[in-house]
Amino acid sequence: MALQINERGSCSSTARFIYDVFLSYRGEDTRYNFTELLKAIELSMISIVIFSENFASSTWCLNELVKILECKNYGQLVLPIFYKVNPSEVRKQEGKFGIALTEHEEKHNKDKVQSWKAALTKATYLAGFSYKEGAELDESAEKQSARASIGRA
């Protein structure tokens, strides 16, 4: 199933992908503008979300995650990678995830923060990878990528 942006700028299942993969991670130095990021998410066949210990402190990352999961409903493959964090910490919003979300509750509207919490929980139930040693992650990512390629053929 293909994914494309419709006139309103939301995901649709009736057109072509432009990008193979969208990589979502905490990286302030690599950001473009928010509109470009959302469009790139919508036009990607696969989104890889790298959850690191400071992921939830970034509203950019949280907004990207919500958009990525919206696009998943239209056939986009989403692959979470838990980089030096336990998926249960993300799911239950414990540790730095809980602290960051509590801080967001003081600055942002309640519905927005609730959507971020729901997205974090939902993402942890997707098939993905936990980073332990670089070689293990590389091998697992290669296997998953190969499976995704076979599924498209």
Automatic annotation (TrEMBL):
<keyword id="KW-0520">NAD</keyword>
<dbReference type="InterPro" id="IPR000157">
    <property type="entry name" value="TIR_dom"/>
</dbReference>
<dbReference type="GO" id="GO:0007165">
    <property type="term" value="P:signal transduction"/>
</dbReference>
<feature type="domain" description="TIR">
    <location>
        <begin position="1"/>
        <end position="149"/>
    </location>
</feature>
<dbReference type="Pfam" id="PF01582">
    <property type="entry name" value="TIR"/>
</dbReference>
<keyword id="KW-0378">Hydrolase</keyword>
<protein>
    <recommendedName>
        <fullName>ADP-ribosyl cyclase/cyclic ADP-ribose hydrolase</fullName>
        <ecNumber>3.2.2.6</ecNumber>
    </recommendedName>
</protein>
<dbReference type="GO" id="GO:0061809">
    <property type="term" value="F:NAD+ nucleosidase activity, cyclic ADP-ribose generating"/>
</dbReference>
<dbReference type="InterPro" id="IPR035897">
    <property type="entry name" value="Toll_tir_struct_dom_sf"/>
</dbReference>
